[in-house]
Amino acid sequence: MGPAPRAFPSWLTIPGYFWLAGGRRWHFFFAWIFALNGLLYVIYNIANGHLRKFLLTPTDAGRVPAMVLYYLRIRKKSPQEGEYNPLQKMAYTSRLLAS
Predict the structure, then answer these.
(1) Residue 60: exposed, middle, or buried by beta-carbon count in 10 A (0-12, 13-18, 19+)?
(2) What residue segments make up the domains of the chain, in order of their start?
(3) N or C: less crowded end of the chain, CB within 10 Å?
C-alpha cells in the first residue's frame, strides 16, 4: 500500500514511515534533553537567587486578598510590589511544591 500523502513532507519527518521503535528512541532522546535543560534552569535560578523572587512569603500572603480585590476591579490601586504580584508568587510556589 505504501505511504499515504500527508500535509507534512515525508522526507523531513523523524522517524520515517512506520518506524515506531525509532520514533520512541527520538522521543526519549529529546525528553532527556528537555529534562536536563529544566534541571539546569532550576539550579541556575537557585544559584543566583532569582528563585527567591518566585516564592510566596508570609508578607505576600497578607497581600493576596488585596490583589484579588484589585483583579475583581473593586480596589483601584494595585498592591503589587516588585516583579511578581502575590497571586503569581502563590501560583509559582504551588507549582514548585507540586513537582
Answers:
(1) buried
(2) 1-48, 49-99
(3) N
Q: How confident is the model at residue 17 (pLDDT cuts 50, 70, 90)?
A: low
From the number of C-beta atoms within 10 Å of its C-beta (0-12, 13-18, 19+), residue 78 rates as exposed
C-alpha cell at 68: 484579588
User: Radius of gyration of the chain from Cα atoms?
Assistant: 23
Query: Which letter does DSSP use for residue 13 in this model?
Result: -
Q: How far apart are CA 37 and CA 9, in angstroms?
A: 29
Return the closest-CA partner of residue 88 out of 55, 41, 40, 46: 55
